[in-house]
Amino acid sequence: MDTRxxxxxxxxxxxxxLLAMGGLVSQAVRDSVTALKELNQSLAEQVIERDDQLDxxxxxxxxxxxxxxxxxxxxxxDLRTIGTVLKMVTDLERMGDHAVDIARTALKLSGETxxxxxxxxxxxxxxxxxxxxxxxxxxxxxxxxxxxxxxxxDDDVDHLxxxxxxxxxxxxxxxxxTIRQATQLLFVAQSLERVADHIxxxxxxxxxxxxxxxxxxxx
Length: 219
What we know:
Elements: H1 3-38, H2 41-72, H3 76-109, H4 120-141, H5 144-148, H6 150-174, H7 179-211
């Protein structure tokens, strides 16, 4: 196997590791929201425990990227690909942290009765998961147009977040006894809104990798 062939095999392996991490992050987001909706203490604890795995994957992928840069001195498109992986892995790790925050909220609220059935927050989580799937597919397919669509989906998230904010605010004004729990739910909605922001970052880096252009998808 020649050096360049080995380089591209390692690059492909690196991308597979990134996708595996993306899958675990998607699961963490889904499980954390489910744990909150069902006030499932066991599931919330699993999300928190699995975060160490995401942290380890981030370090491993970063180290492999840096080793490739040091040993292979990639140029142009290959260098942009490695740089994109380095940026994406950071965004994925932070998404995992937000899932942990949501899981911790589920633990705080376990044993309580929710002040309202959770419909919009789970919907926010579903949109975030859909966006992550789009972002990872755009990366794999080198599809800048698909990555660009994340801007519209992020607008959907922002609108839904604003709706959740208004509804919880009205609830708190009408019944001050709901303030503590409503505030916790606002933090959850904010965490999911930030997850979506990290996914738009993934889209921006994918566009940069493909075109060499920098675009802001989170206006």
